Amino acid sequence: MKKTNSLLLCAVVMLLSFTACSGPNADMTEENITETVQVVETALKEFDIKSLNKYVDSGTLSVILNYAQKHEQFVELGKAIFGNLEMEVASIDLDNKTVTVSVSNKDLAKTAGDFASKLKSEYSTFQLLSKLNSDLFLDNKLTELCKQIDEAQLLPEAVEITLEIQQDSKNLVLSFNDNAEDAVSGGALSSIKSIYSAQ
After folding, report:
1. Contact 142, 130 (CB under 8 A)
2. What pTM, to 2 d.p., does this model score?
3. Is 140 left (phi over 0), alpha (psi -120 to 50) or beta?
4. What CA–CA distances, in Å, run from 66 to 56, 59, 160?
5. Separation between Cα atoms, residue 191 and residue 68, nearest integer Å
6. Between 6 and 29, where is the model more confident?
7. Which 8-state DSSP code applies to residue 172?
8. String of b and e for 17-33 (b: at least 16 CB within 10 Å)?
9. Tell me, what DSSP letter sits at residue 197?
10. How big is the chain by its Cα radius of gyration, in Å?
11. Contact in structure between 45 and 82 (CB atoms under 8 Å)
12. Confidence of residue 104 (pLDDT cuts 50, 70, 90)
């Protein structure tokens, strides 16, 4: 009888442990939303491709993630951009399925803008796209950019962004618009876009 009770107790403990470690699910609750924000923050800092594809809906990040799946240099760039990112839940609106998050990072607008301007002066868009598959080019250029990011200073104040929350089959997904992408990247993404959208 004691052996049966011990086995039952072990089974219950294992089940509870598995549940606790399984991460946020698709239920639209404040607890799951808060945990999803924490998971996304960690995924960005570590530039965890699998987790970002699972928990984040972002047009710009999707493009970077596609390159990161083939080239480790983009993973290292992602870690550099988001390594100092801090995200804290400010408020949750369950009715409108949104979460407002306080975000802080390094000030990367000028660093990214200067880097993009230099690339644009050296290569046409077509030439640059072809070079994004060259490991030698990526080693040289992205290592240079990562060093510049490392030297950048933290932004003096956090900013607030509001993210829409989608319910996937197994988990919640945070949707990042242009403003949100810009905030979490310390201004890097908007600077690069502005350089390459300018005629």
Report:
1. no
2. 0.85
3. alpha
4. 14, 11, 28
5. 20
6. 29
7. E
8. eeeeeeebeeeeeeebb
9. H
10. 20
11. yes
12. very high
